[in-house]
Amino acid sequence: MEILKLILVAGVVVVASLCLAFRSQKKKSGGSKSVADPTIIISPDTVLVIKVPKDLEGEHFELLAAPVAAEQMFSALHGLLKFTPNVQEHITFEIGADREGLIFYCTIPHQLQSYVESQIYAQYPNAQINVSTDYIKYDEKLPVFNCISLKPSKPNYFPIRTFRDFEVDPLSALTSSIEEVSQKSRAFAQISVRPLADGWQAEGYRYVEMIKMGTKPVSLGLGDFLHDFVNEMGAVLGNIPKRMVYPGDAYVAQRTPQKPEPQRAAVLSEGQKKELEAIEAKLSKMGFETIVRIGVASTDEATASTHLKSLGAAFKQFGTSNLNSFRESGATSFEQFQNRDFVDDQSFILSTDELASIFHLPSASVETPSISWSLAKRGEPPINLPIENCTYMGKTTFRDRQVMFGIKNDTEKAEDRCRHTYLVGKTGTGKSTIFKNMIIQDMKNGFGVGVMDPHGELIDDILQNVPEERIDDVIVIDPSDFEFPVGLNLLECSDQAQKNLMASGLLSVFKKHFGFSWGPRLEYLLNNAILTLLEVPGTTMLGVVRILADDNYRKYILHKVHDPVMLDFWEKEFKGMKGNQSLISEALSPIQNKVGRFLSSSTIRNLLGQRTSTIDLRDIMDNKKILLMNLAKGKIGEDNSNLLGSMLVARLFFTVMQRVNVSWESRVPFYLYVDEFQNFASESFANILSEARKYRLALHLTHQYTAQIPEEMQMAVFGNVGTIIALTLGAQDAKILEPEFAPVFNENDLINLEAHHFYIKLIIDGMTSAPFSGVSLPPPSKEQAAGFKDRIIDLSRKKYSRPLAEIEEKIRTWIERPFDLGMAIAEEHREGSVVPKVEEADQKEPENQKGGVVGEKKKIEGEIRI
C-alpha cells in the first residue's frame, strides 16, 4: 500500500513538474502567436476573377508599382482583423492556369466581397473583377492531383526576399513556371491569409536584443526548444524540495538572483547588422497568418511530381542563406486545396511586403505571354445617367456594376434623341443588336419609327417583335416582294416652289453612285431633266431617260412646261449638244447607262414607275407610324439597294422639311434608323445631319469603319451627332476615334473591346457626357417575340401595294405610247373644255390615301396613268 502511495505521489510530482516547466518555458519564449487560434473557420464561397490592363506604354511604367499597390492592399485588408469574436475569416489569392491561359483569382467569404473588391479597386482602379465559378474541379482527363504546402525554413521573424530586393518583378518567374507546367498539366498557386494582431513580433525583438548584447539566442527552433524545456524541467524538479521547506514569498526572495553586472553591446559584423535590419523591418509591419500551397493536376504520377517540383523551384528565388527561404512542408489533400482550408499546422507569418512579393497583380514587366489581361478599360458612368423614361441602350460595366441606361425620351421635345446617335464597329460586334433593342422599345412606346436595312435580317427581327396594338401602323417597303410592289413616285411634287430642293436631293444621290463618270456637263444635263419633269404632274423616274432619248416625248413634256429657263435649255443648248459626239459621250451616254440600267430592273421599275405613290411619307411621320424598308442586297442587288436607299433617304428628308410651315411644337418626333448608312449617304447627307434636328427627325446611324465615308462626311458626323457609340474597331478607326474618347480611353482600348461591349458618349439634357463603358442588352428571345410577321406583311400588302400584273400592264402601255406635241395640245384642249372625266377602273385609290394629299389625283382624260 505504501508503494502505491509513493507511485501516486511521484506521478503527481512529474505531471506538475511538466506543467510548470512548459509554462515557464513558454513565458520565456513569448510564443509565436499572441492571439488564440479561431475555433470556427468560415468557408470561402465567392470566387473572383481579377484582370488588369497591360500597360503598353513602357515609358510610363514603374517596376515597383504593382507590388507596392499590393502591399497597400494587404495593409488595408488587415482591417478585417477581429478581436472579440472567435471567428476570423481568411482570404485566398490564387494563380491558376490551363490551356486557356493564366488567370488571377481571389476566393473570399461572401460577406466580405464588397469590402475586398473596394480595396482591390482602390489600388488597381482599372481592374476588372467578375464573379466566377470555382475553377478547381476534378478533371477526368487529369486524374492525378499532387499538392504540397510550403513553409519558411527558419522562425517567423526571419524575412524572405521582398520585391525591393529584385531587379525584375519576382512574379515573372512564378507565372513563367506555372505557364510552362500548364502546357501539359494544370498548375495552381494558392496563398491563404488572415490578419494577425500585434504581439507576434515579441520573439523577434527578443532575438534582435540578444544578438546585439552578444547573448546566445534561445528558442530559435524545435531542438533549442526541447533543450531549454529539459533544462527548465530539471530546474523545477530540483526546486521542489526548496518549495516544501520555504514559504512562498521566502522562496521567491531566496530564488531571486543577484542583479547581474550590465553587459556591453556586442560588436556586430556587417552581415549581422544587415540581418538585424531586415528582421526589424519585417517586425515593423503588419502580419498575416499565411498558408502557401502549390498543386498540379496531370495525367500520371510521374508527370505531376516532376511539374510540382518545377513549380516549387520558383519559390526558391525568395530565399537567402542568412535570412529565410521556403521549404516543402508536406503533402496536402485535394479537398484541403479545393476548399481552401486554413490548417494551423501549415500556417506561418508573413508581413505585408512579403505577401506582396509572392502575390500581386501583373504589370507590363511580367512578360509571360499567356496571362489573361483586361484588354480594354472600363469607364465610370456619369452621375446623372438616365435609368428611367428612356430608350435603353445597354448596361454599365464599370467595376462590374451593371445598371441599365439609355437615352432620354422626352415626348414633348425629344431634344436628346433629335441630336442623333452614331454607332461604329466591326461586323459582328453588336451594332444591330443595339439598334434592334432600341427599335422594339420605340415601337412599344408608340413612337414613329423608320428602319432602313441593307441586309434584311434586322427587318425580319423587327417584324417578329411588333406589338399587336401597332400592327395597323406598319408599312413595309420590300422591293423583293415582286408580286406586290408598293408605289413611290420620287417626282411627285405638290409645291412647285420646292422642286429645286427635290432635284438637288436626287442629283446628290446620282452623283454618289456615278463615280468617276460624273462631270459638270453631266450634272447640268441631269439636273435640267429632273427639274423639267418635276414641273409636269404625273411624271416618274422613267421619264428621265426617255426625255433625253425620245424627241417626241420631249416635245410632249415641254409643251406643259412654263419655266423659260428650262425651255431655253432644251430648245437651244440640248439641240446643239446632240450634234456634238464628244458631249454625248461625256454627258448623255453615262445618264442613259447608269439610270437606264437602274430602271431596267423590273423590281425597281415597278416601284418607282407608278404615277401615284401608295405611301404618304408625311402621314407616316406626323402620325407616328412604323416604316420598314427592306433593301436586302442579296435579293435586289447591291447597286439597286444602295441607289434606292439613297433616294428614299433624300425623299424622307425632303418630306420632313415640309414641316417648315408647321409650328415647332406641332412637329412630331420621328426616329429613323439607318443600318450601314454609308451605302445611302450622299453629299447632301451632311446637310441632313445639321438640319434634321430642327424638324424633329432623329437619325440613328451605324456602319463598320470610317473609311466607308469621305472625310467631309466624317467631320459632319462628329460635328453634329450628340451620342457616339464605338464598338470594337480596327487600328485605323481607333486612331480616328481616339480623340472623341480621350482621355478616358485610348486607341488600344478601342481595338481590344470585347464583342457587344462598347464605349459611349451620351447626350444627357443637351450636354454630352464623359465617355464610359457599357455592354449591349441581349435581344428578345424567340419566345418573347410577338410573332405577327406574316399578318403584318399581309395587311401592309392590302393597304399599300398593287398587284404585279396591273402595274406591269400600265408601265408597258406607257412605254409603247407614242407621245408627241399633237397629243399634248389635244390634252390641253380637252382639259379646258367641259367634258366628263373618264373614270378609270385601274386607278383605284389605296385605302390609306382616301381624302389625303396623295389621294387627290388629277385625272387627265385620254392619258394612261401609271
Automatic annotation (TrEMBL):
Regions of compositional bias (Basic and acidic residues) in chain numbering: 832-848, 855-866
InterPro entries for the chain:
DUF8128, HerA_central, P-loop_NTPase, T4SS_component
Domain Helicase HerA central, chain residue ranges per copy: 419-643
Q: Where is this region: Disordered?
A: 832-866
Domain DUF8128 residue range list: 69-373
Query: Superkingdom of the source?
Result: Bacteria
- List, alphabetically, the Pfam families matched: DUF8128 (PF26449), DUF87 (PF01935)
Give the protein name, as stated in the record: Uncharacterized protein
